[in-house]
Design brief:
single chain, Four Helix Bundle (Hemerythrin (Met), subunit A), 8 helices
């Protein structure tokens, strides 16, 4: 929901850094961002929550930086977009898993399973819809989006996820409530896309 407002702001903030990193290939920044996320997951597993939150924040910043580097330095590629989304989803999955492994209980595992199941449905929801829109030439380029493929909007996007993950990390005692609440909001997003698709795709 907020991505449409934060994306241009993010580009303006990160562009000077992206230009200064011109000799570095954006895919290397993607891999560096992934490594920061993996370190964050490790510290989350170890119960070092503040350190984990710092690495999560660094992961999000560098995740935004790789795309800006590609655009301003004329190094965009389909491979780069593919690596970027793969790295995102690895970290999105590992952070909640690491938090639960650090505080194992049946309740936590149940709500983790609910969250990951909803993620599974949500991924199918937006990726297949994005593929259809690209096929119909209504994709990212036509919409003026600064992404490799279009990302159909909804209540929950990247900005909201970044914020909620901070809550996951810093409030581990509330994970069942946070997982359940976030899963519900993501499901609302899935329904939003489904309604839009039934009205617009003929």
């Amino acid at each position: 929901m907020l991505d449409q407002y934060t994306r241009n702001w993010k580009e303006d903030v990160l562009e000077p850094f992206a230009r200064s990193f011109a000799p570095i290939h954006p895919n290397l920044m993607t891999l560096f961002s992934l490594s920061l996320g993996l370190v964050g997951a490790f510290f989350a597993w170890q119960g070092e929550y503040w350190i984990a939150a710092v690495f999560w924040a660094l992961n999000r910043i560098t995740d935004g930086l790789d795309g800006t580097m590609a655009r301003v330095n004329q190094k965009q590629s389909d491979l780069g977009g593919y690596l970027d989304i793969m790295a995102d989803f690895v970290v999105y999955a590992l952070i909640p898993v690491a938090l639960v492994l650090g505080r194992p209980s049946t309740t936590y595992f149940v709500w983790l399973a609910v969250l990951l199941a909803v993620y599974y449905v949500n991924t199918a929801s937006w990726m297949y819809l994005a593929a259809i829109l690209e096929k119909r030439a209504h994709g990212a380029a036509v919409r003026g989006e600064k992404t490799t493929v279009t990302m159909p909007g909804g209540l929950i996007g990247g900005t909201e996820t970044a914020f909620v993950y901070v809550l996951f990390i810093l409030l581990p005692g509330y994970l069942p409530w946070l997982f359940g609440g976030f899963a519900g909001l993501v499901l609302v997003t899935v329904v939003q896309r489904l309604i839009w698709a039934t009205q617009e795709l003929k």
